[in-house]
Amino acid sequence: MKSLATWLTRSDQFLIQLVNCHWKCRVLDWLMPWVTHLGGARATIGFLSAWLIFMPRHVKLWAVEALIALATSHLAVMFLKKFLPRIRPYLKLTHLHTFPNPLTDYSFPSGHTTAAFSIALTFSLHSSLLMIILIPYAVIIGFSRMYLALHYPTDVLIGVFLGSSFALATVRLFDIWY
């Protein structure tokens, strides 16, 4: 078991260095701080609120499902951050590039990635056209979290798993109830 933990730690450190240091460029330095906010509370709740207000009645339920998936997945994120605290990569690995306004709370799991996937998968389960747009959006948000040295790859992968799982469960429960 210890060798698995060692392998995961080394893999996380290698991949975070690859994304944060070796892929560093001016365009991504400018773009990633903006992109990452698309997985934040204002952007996700704003998107879902706008969907509820402006979309036709027959697709408004998708936003309700996504709000439930978002809220419940974030309860899991808050629980994991509290009981499995993990120091953010840029605080532990001093050679990583940091960006303005870095976070100081715990990194495991990635809440932004969880949020992005909870919404993207909820809508994708209803529309393959939206899948083409929203899954890449969610992947880019996860990438941005690593590029900004705020999360390790495993933080992002667990965020993908949580957001996707809660989205799938919520949509399936709504299918059963309605």
UniProtKB/TrEMBL annotation:
Source domain of life: Bacteria
Claim: Chaperone is one of the keywords in the record: no
Membrane topology value: Multi-pass membrane protein
Gene3D superfamilies found in the cross-reference section: Phosphatidic acid phosphatase type 2/haloperoxidase
InterPro entries hit by this protein: PAP2/HPO, PAP2/HPO_sf
The Phosphatidic acid phosphatase type 2/haloperoxidase domain, residue ranges: 63-171
GO function terms (MF aspect): hydrolase activity
Positions of transmembrane segments: 34-55, 61-80, 129-150, 156-174
Places the protein is found: Cell membrane
SMART domains the UniProt entry points to: acidPPc
Gene Ontology cellular component annotations, sorted alphabetically: plasma membrane
Keywords: Cell membrane, Hydrolase, Membrane, Transmembrane, Transmembrane helix
The protein's name: Phosphatase PAP2 family protein
